[in-house]
Amino acid sequence: MNIPSFQYPQNPTKETVIECLGLESVYSQNLQRPILNGIDCRVQRGEFVALLGLNGAGKSSLLRSLIGLMPITRGKIVINGTPLSSHTLSPIRRQVGMLFQGGGLIPQLSVIDNVLCGKLGNLKPQHTLFGFPKQDRRQGIELLERLGLREHVYQKVYQLSGGQQQRVAIARALIQSPSILLADEPTTGLDVVASQQVMETLATLNYDKGITIVAVLHDLGIARQYAHRAIILDAGKVVYDGECDQLQDKFMQMVTN
Ligand SMILES: Nc1ncnc2c1ncn2[C@@H]1O[C@H](COP(=O)(O)OP(=O)(O)O)[C@@H](O)[C@H]1O
Ligand SMILES: [Mg+2]
Question: How many angstroms separate the alpha carbon of residue 126 from the centre of ligand 1?
Fold first, then answer.
């Protein structure tokens, strides 16, 4: 997949699609503070944002909070203009795909069945007896073909390489046609080539399909190469929000402070 590196996708309206205002999560006795401790940030439609920070900074917690998997005690989250609440959680989850750390796939199931798991939330009672509708299966296969996995559709997931598995996880997140994709460490554990393939897949989705992406990354070089902007968290707060140019310096400042 060849993508031009780095032109910004079109976003003439600069519409905000993720907004966190004074976000505070549950208190942690261990940390003696809320895990997310007053987060303010915004992401605009079509952006590719790298979410960075040392281990334990709160990156996964922030992504989880955006789909209602981390209880919030203060502040608010607005997704595509809708405040997140118990009433709006289902529609919001259909708009936001999540790529969990480690992929979260079921190794013994086939690739296509793993992808269809992304549709489980939509399953009607009759489908539990007769399986997924044909059109879902077709859509899953098309997605896998687009992600370069045509030959692997019916293979078991455990038979695939790490990079291929991560692309299956991407297909599973995409089967709901989300407008936002959250990716928690999509390249961790992958070799350089597989990391690059996964990042290019994400960049293509961002560039060609206009999907807004927030990815937790550890490699500052990868962040600089693929992301338009970086948000750095430390101790549950945003400590940097801006260009990817001087990330190394920012990290050195954080570590030495
Ligand atoms: N469900 C939870 N209960 C208690 N503590 C948690 C929970 N989830 C995360 N934490 C703690 O919150 C902090 C941030 O975790 P996390 O968001 O996973 O960090 P990161 O992804 O940046 O490494 C860590 O200290 C972690 O131990
Ligand atoms: Mg994490």
Answer: 39
Question: Which residues have their alpha-adjacent CB atom under 5 A from ion ligand 2?
Answer: 60
At 15, is the secondary structure helix, strand, or coil?
Answer: coil
Q: Which residue range forms the structural domain that includes residue 86? A: 16-256
Q: Quick check: is 195 in a domain?
A: yes
CATH number where 143 lies: 3.40.50.300
Q: How far is the CA of 139 from the centre of ligand 2 (A)?
A: 30
The whole-model pTM stands at 0.90
The amino acid that residue 200 corresponds to is E
- 246: confidence class by pLDDT, cuts 50, 70, 90: confident
**How many independent structural domains does the chain possess?**
1
pLDDT digits (tens, 9 = 90+) for 181-223: 999 999 998 999 999 999 999 999 999 999 999 999 999 999 9
DSSP structure class, residue 177? -
Q: Which residues line ligand 1 (CB under 6 A)?
A: 28, 31, 35, 53, 55-61
CA distance 252 to 201: 30
Report if residue 99 sits inside a domain.
Answer: yes
